[in-house]
Amino acid sequence: MAQNTIPASVLFCCDHNSIRSPIAEGMMKKFYGRAAYVQSAGVKNDMEVDGFAIAVCDEIGVRIENHRSRSFEEMKDWGDDLGGFDLIVALSPASQRQALELTRVYHLDVEYWPIMDPTGLAEGREARLAAYRQTRDQIRARMIERFGPPTAED
Prior knowledge:
Number of helices: 5
Radius of gyration: 15 Å
InterPro entries: Ptyr_pPase, Ptyr_pPase_sf
Distance between the termini: 27 Å
Number of strands: 4
Protein name: Low molecular weight phosphatase family protein
Structural class: alpha/beta
Order of helices and strands: EHEHHEHEH
Keywords: Arsenical resistance
Strand order of the largest sheet: 2-1-3-4
Largest sheet: 4 strands, parallel
Oligomer: single chain
Strand content: 5-15%
Organism: Paracoccus angustae
Helix content: 25-40%
């Protein structure tokens, strides 16, 4: 798939579907509107969407507070077929391994974007927010590099 082409459907994934993949899903929807069907999932879904992730997304007008974390397993249970996605973007090594394992029988692209996990990197609210902003900005930079400049921003 050529750079700057927006696939018809994209799945972002990370470890818990509580920080990196919900941020990516929210930004993709805001930046590119209805150009693609966008979802996100985690290897596990043992956490709710992270409050710091919500805060740093709010700063750029991306709303993720209503995001409900889900795992690859739940996606399958709900009838979201991984083989139906044109592109899977893994934001963590564990999610990349699982995505490759679950899709080995399908012909689709799995890309790995090495995005920093901001949890536990800093003490205190401001330092933690700075770490989360760094993660958000890494995702934004990779997204624009991959899909081109935002087309649907308010």
